[in-house]
Specification:
The protein is α+β, with helices and mostly antiparallel strands. Helix content is 44%, strand content 15%. The chain has 7 helices and 6 strands. The strands form 3 sheets. Strands 1-4 form a two-stranded antiparallel sheet. Strands 2-3 form a two-stranded antiparallel ribbon. Helix 6 crosses helix 7. The termini are far apart. About 3% of the residues have low confidence.
Amino acid sequence: WRWVVKIPPPVQEASLELIMTDEDRLQAHEQIYHPVVYSLDHLLSVAYDKYVEGRSHLGVLHETVVFDSWDETAVDTLFSRYCRCCWRRSGMVKRKFAYMQMDVELLPMAVATSNPVEAGNVAPPKSRLSFGSALAEPTRTVKILIGAQRYWNLLFLGCACTTLLVLAIIGALAYFVVSIVNSST
């Protein structure tokens, strides 16, 4: 996304509150992590000082925002609350943080008006889940919905069960063949 915000200098306090939500068409939009506040105070102060002194603007700042706190009750289960081994198995120990890459550019109004840009969605994510992609790629959809680790565990379990079933059928057929041969002699 691209946001264009006009801020009259000098300001005492300015910040962006970033919220990561789960926006799919399968469920309601849910907040995944607690909001992260990205402070613009110092950057605006430096950009204003550079503008007043007649120096060039700051340029594009490449930032990484880390979403590292979430609501514990959202991932709680009945067993994970009371049983330490279920808590460990539920993946809460291995829960990873989310990282968002962000470019910040602060421009004087004269420069911004000479090179205007449009605010809004620059390009939707290529890997976003939709009904069309869910139907076209069911394997990818299952991986997204249940997670890659659970997907591979279920695939392994399915292969193991199929192998055991085939071996049981072969064993039953062998038993019937042996019993028919023994009963005819």
